[in-house]
Amino acid sequence: MYVYFSGFMDKQKMLTYLKCAIVISICLNIYFITITIQGPIHKCPQTFCPDNWIGYQNRCYYFSKEEGDWNSSSYNCSTLHSTLATIDTMEEMNFLMCYKCSSDHWIGLMMENNQTGEWVNGTVFNNWFPVRGGGICAYLSDDSVATARCHTERKWICKKNMHHLI
């Protein structure tokens, strides 16, 4: 492309504009190359539990300070948009046993004749840990899972999924 400039000042201006255009072009190229190499920036979702809940493995747990029978404990969990705690892994069992301290706490398991059981979420209990006692409603005792009459007053543990912020 041929451009005619009259006078020295026009050539100086043209050189200045040309230098600026080259610098801007180089900067834009570096920017786009950097973005292309790094790929898109994804924000990791942040998770959190409500106040007075404890987070563990993408779940939130509420350990009550008050006591109630199994049915009122289950109802109290539902008012908190949760259920009585189900236990899916040995790690989760260890966490609950450690965190509850020495108090007995209702959990979301009901047994029939100490043979078969069902979790409050509808999952069949597969006997992967022993349950002692002759009752129907399950609770975490000092060192194991036990059953008792459902009208006995105990503390309880609620469980729900963590909230996600994006």
From TrEMBL:
Enumerate the Pfam families for this protein: Lectin_C
Annotated compartments: Cell membrane
Instruction: Give the way it sits in the membrane.
Output: Single-pass type II membrane protein
Keyword Transmembrane in annotation = yes
- Where are the membrane-spanning stretches? 21-41
**Where's the C-type lectin domain?**
56-159
- What name does this protein carry? C-type lectin domain family 2 member B
Question: What is the species listed in this Swiss-Prot or TrEMBL entry?
Answer: Trichechus manatus latirostris (Florida manatee)
